[in-house]
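quick one before i forget lol
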Amino acid sequence: MNVRAISKRTVAYVVLKVSATLGGGFVVGVEVWQAAAVAAFVGIMEVAEEVSRAYVSDGDISEDDVNTIFNGFLDEDPELGKK
C-alpha cells in the first residue's frame, strides 16, 4: 500500500468534491468556508470508508484496489471528472 499515493489522490478528490459543493452551499445560505469544510470532511470520509472496505475484504490494499476506489468515485458522480 502506498500511503503517499492514496494521500495525493485523496487531496485531488477533496478538491473536486469541494469545488462541486461550494455553489450549492452558497445558494442555500451556508457560508463558503463551512460548505468547503463539510465537503472536505465528507470527501475524506468517503475515501477512508472505501479504503477500509478494501482492507477488510482481503487484509491488503493493492494498487488495483486504490485504482478501483478512485475510479468508482468518478463512475458514481461523472460531474467530478468533467473539465
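fyi DSSP finds three helices and no strands in the chain.
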